[in-house]
């Protein structure tokens, strides 16, 4: 195996892809798309705030007065619900008009229906005495899909009816509210470096984001390897390359070059993520307690993240390179890749369970399966650092599996890149491995 030859191939693959418009378009579009999917909906939601005109007909005569008193909720967790109750009220403002119950209720309801259709009011609710015993309140409006408005209305109705029920029971609603106030959890992470306050939701989303960046990167760049092999095979460029470069060297050089492209793109994405989220983080930190700290990424964790990314990339890419070499066109290769993607999606399915219990048997066993180790082991390290022997064993097993897979797939690659015609069967692929 000639390292210099592999270096030349890797350099060619890296420069060939980095200089393309597609690389830079993808590099820019992904952060923009991520920002659009996370920030723009909130901005649009905040700007679509309108006052919802609701007519209230209260047969009890006691719920409506309480309903008009909009009491603030308990203090919100800024990590779980940024902006708290105020943010929700901006998008669900309710303007109540209380009207007395008329003798002819049917005529009154018909009049309300006409006012809704004429857009004089948005909706009306009818409160009967049964609401104090658990009955529902009728809501009638032009739209019943405005779930945020209905959620705010339900909250205020629940609070109003609860206060009336407590008063009927001879209890002071204000005292009961103070005594039944929710108790929050101040989460403190214990580690070898010491204990510190850290938001549970923040740690979860931090691990979640890192996991999917790694997971999607492996899938996306694996597809790039497969498409690259198919292109070379269809243009017969590979026949010229094989005359001077051994197939194993060509494959390893290709994987290394494209891996460097992936790391470059990841670096740009991470830098973009830091720049985009910095203003929001600064604003959030200003409202946090003095002893609160956001989750951080230690240097050792970053090294493990990088190491497992490289190993996972090489393993996944060897699969995709073999598929690209074995099949004749992208459609055939994509069908096989779709089946293989189901296997690679297993970590995404069990990811919530691993985050919730990083030391469970499921988490330990699956994180030591070489196909899953590159994404699950870094996830465990971010959430709760596993014992050193498990991390070391994960590296050993993954590296051994990588060598075996590169050897296995390179033998398919050696024959497949020169094969044209019908789609190979599994017995034929095994014969390629045996005789190449």
Explain this structure to me?
- With 436 residues, the protein is α/β, with parallel strands linked by helices.
- The protein contains 18 helices and six strands.
- It is elongated, with a radius of gyration of 30 Å.
- α2 (21-38) runs parallel beside α11.
- β5 (188-191) and β6 form a beta hairpin.
Order of helices and strands: HHHEHHEHEEHHEEHHHHHHHHHH
Q: Please give the alpha-carbon distance between the first and last residues.
A: 16 Å
Strand content: 5-15%
Overall structural class, as computed from helix and strand content, comes to: alpha/beta
Strand order of the largest sheet: 2-1-3-4
Mean pLDDT across all amino acids: 75
Helix content: 55-70%
Rg is 30 Å
In short, what is this structure?
This protein has 436 residues and is of the alpha/beta class. It is 66% helix and 7% strand.
Furnish the topology, listing elements before pairings:
Layout: H1 3-18, H2 21-38, H3 40-47, E1 51-58, H4 63-67, H5 84-90, E2 93-99, H6 105-117, E3 123-127, E4 138-141, H7 147-168, H8 173-179, E5 188-191, E6 194-197, H9 200-234, H10 237-242, H11 247-286, H12 299-326, H13 330-344, H14 346-356, H15 361-367, H16 373-383, H17 388-416, H18 426-435
Parallel strand pairs: 1-2, 1-3
Antiparallel strand pairs: 3-4, 5-6
Name some characteristics of this structure.
two-stranded antiparallel sheet; 436 residues; 66% helix; 7% strand
